[in-house]
Amino acid sequence: MARMSAEERRESVIRAAMHEFARGGYHGTSTEAIAKRVGVSQPYLFRLFPNKPAIFLAAAERCLRETREVFAAAAEGLEGEEAGLAMANAYARLITEDPDKLQMQLQMYVTVGAAEAAGDHELGELVRKGWMELWDTVHVPLGGDVNETTTFMAYGMLINNLAAMGFPPGHRVWAGLYPSTRVGGEGRPGE
Asked: Could you tell me the pTM of the whole model?
């Protein structure tokens, strides 16, 4: 078996960190758990990343980037309502098929809030930058309409919370949401 390069190991660490942080949060996840999931020692982990905050920052950036990529791919060549529906469906599939993406997002927001309260703004700056890139990714296909973009993003945050609370597909709580945003659903609610 070929030996992994440092860059390949780094990628493995980011994937493992996303999983571990999604499950345990920043404070509840040890670097030992991340190293164990990757199959490396903690000292080797710290050759790839200087510290735990750097690992969390890399995982947060990856989560935001991969979510942006899902929106961009879904909206490619589409605009307006058609783009909105495609992005909503793609996002519903993403958080259904890869629950770590949803959990990592939620953990990012909690961790940013705690860090900001403690006077540490580095993570907040990264997450706010990533959020604005996410905003811009959906804003253009939605016709550059601020109200449409705000509505889309607001429904997305509501969907995040409802999905995180475990409301199953088909539950009545999904009925009044933006078209296609029922977890695992296609088309407009009620269709």
From this structure: 0.86
